[in-house]
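Field log, afternoon session.

UNIT: design team B
ACTIVITY: writing a sequence onto a fixed backbone
BACKBONE:
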């Protein structure tokens, strides 16, 4: 009898893994993420993206973000959490580790590899002092029993171990508690008939930090950005540059981030009055985008003065 030897290694996702992760997504017939979406998630929260390798090949992967539980409606859907894959809901100062996706190569089912990922996520939750892990799981066996049982009855029978469901049973066995039955979280999920279950694992080591919103600070952290002044391809290029610096400075827990004037670089050849008129065309877009960044990254942004005509 031939015994297969596995060389299993659990580690964080790397940027170089993006293409191979997409291959795994195809293998499990999952929604195929674009490569830039994977890179975006890696950029905002590299610690929360885990993979299991077997002899150098990704066979299991799990993706996550940090959110404030109060920032989203409990009756949410998948695209509301991912913000259509721009992950702007991710908040390093949040209190919950939210599991977005788990992928497993079908050939590796039954080896308890997902168990290793869940254990790693629990350890990460404790290390970051987060209140809990939240995930929304499908109930893939439900379509086999939907004519016999309503979703509520089916879930209760799985909870009582009278029925088996590969996802729900696994989560219950890992100390996740059922918080809510949800309908329509994953549009078009036929096998679960669009039913999912919101689950939560509570971190018993969580230590609540005092609310210091109104307390006086003895130290204020200010991030000063000195970026190269050069012509921009378009306004989106400016926003992409700004986002990189905002994400970095916010990650260091800064209270303020200060940008130098940038847009004037495109109009240095014009008279001052004409340059101001041209610059004013961008005023509303710039203000709205930096307001969005300030809320998403929980940081005060000083973006300089811009004219309104």
């Amino acid at each position: 009898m031939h015994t297969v030897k596995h060389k299993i290694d659990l580690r964080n996702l790397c940027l170089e893994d993006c293409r191979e992760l997409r291959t795994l997504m195809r293998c499990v017939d999952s929604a195929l993420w674009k490569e830039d979406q994977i890179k975006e998630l890696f950029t905002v929260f590299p610690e929360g993206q885990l993979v299991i390798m077997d002899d150098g090949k990704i066979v299991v992967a799990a993706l996550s973000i940090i959110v404030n539980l109060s920032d989203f409606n409990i009756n949410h859907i998948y695209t509301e959490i991912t913000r259509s894959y721009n992950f702007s809901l991710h908040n390093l100062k949040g209190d919950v580790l939210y599991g977005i996706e788990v992928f497993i190569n079908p050939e590796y089912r039954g080896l308890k590899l997902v168990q290793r990922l869940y254990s790693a996520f629990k350890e990460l939750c404790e290390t970051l002092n987060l209140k809990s892990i939240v995930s929304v799981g499908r109930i893939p066996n439900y379509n086999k029993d939907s004519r016999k049982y309503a979703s509520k009855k089916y879930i209760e029978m799985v909870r009582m171990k009278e029925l088996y469901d590969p996802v729900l049973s696994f989560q219950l066995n890992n100390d996740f508690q059922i918080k809510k039955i949800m309908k329509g979280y994953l549009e078009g999920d036929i096998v679960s008939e669009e039913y999912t279950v919101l689950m939560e694992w509570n971190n018993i080591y969580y230590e609540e930090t005092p609310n210091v919103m109104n307390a006086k600070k003895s130290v204020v952290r200010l991030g000063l950005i000195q970026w190269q002044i050069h012509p921009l391809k378009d306004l989106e290029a400016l926003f992409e540059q700004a986002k990189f610096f905002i994400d970095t400075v916010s990650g260091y827990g800064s209270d303020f981030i200060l940008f130098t004037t940038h847009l004037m670089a495109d109009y240095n050849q014009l008279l001052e009055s004409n340059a101001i008129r041209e610059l004013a065309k961008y005023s509303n877009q710039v203000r709205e985008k930096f307001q969005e960044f300030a809320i998403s990254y929980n940081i005060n942004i000083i973006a300089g003065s811009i004219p309104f005509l």
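LOG NOTE: The CA atoms of residues 34 and 295 lie 26 Å apart.
NEXT ACTIVITY: expression trials, pending approval
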